[in-house]
């Protein structure tokens, strides 16, 4: 499995608009096992995204899908920046397939 955890910053007052676009555009992505969009209780403009994919190739391919490209284009004006992104290798957990390898 392949995972990503990232934090992005919305332009002031635009967090909900970005989160809506992220949630709508990620409902059926081939190879995506989990895609969680979360607010940060200590920062009104921060958005956390936690992703689990079957493999890195599935994630890379998803970025070329027309619906993902459209969501990126719509969200871009509302994004102030990306603070960081960490690659992980999920090994399992509630909601993920058993027997995953890192």
Task: Report what the structure shows.
The chain has a single domain, classed as Alpha-Beta Plaits, CATH 3.30.70.100. The radius of gyration is 14 Å and the shape is globular. It starts with a strand and ends in a 14-residue tail after the last strand. Strand 2 and strand 3 form a beta hairpin. The chain has helices at 15-25, 56-62, 66-75; strands spanning 2-10, 32-40, 43-53, 79-88. It is α+β, with helices and mostly antiparallel strands and 102 residues long. 12% of the residues are buried. The protein has a 4-stranded antiparallel β-sheet with strand order 2-3-1-4.
In short:
The protein is an alpha+beta fold and 102 residues long.
The level-1 CATH class: Alpha Beta
| Overall form | globular
β-sheet strand percentage: 35-45%
Distance between the termini: 6 Å
| Main beta sheet strand tally, sense and closure | 4 strands, antiparallel
* Largest sheet strand order: 2-3-1-4
Named CATH topology: Alpha-Beta Plaits
Assign the CATH architecture. 2-Layer Sandwich
Mean pLDDT: 91
**Overall tally of domains:** 1
Radius of gyration: 14 Å
Tell me the series of helices and strands, N- to C-terminal: EHEEHHE
Number of strands: 4
Helix/strand/pairing category: alpha+beta
| Percent of residues in helices | 25-40%
Residue stretches low in confidence (pLDDT < 50, at least 5 long) are: none
- How would you name the oligomeric state of the polypeptide chains in this document? single chain
The count of helical stretches stands at 3
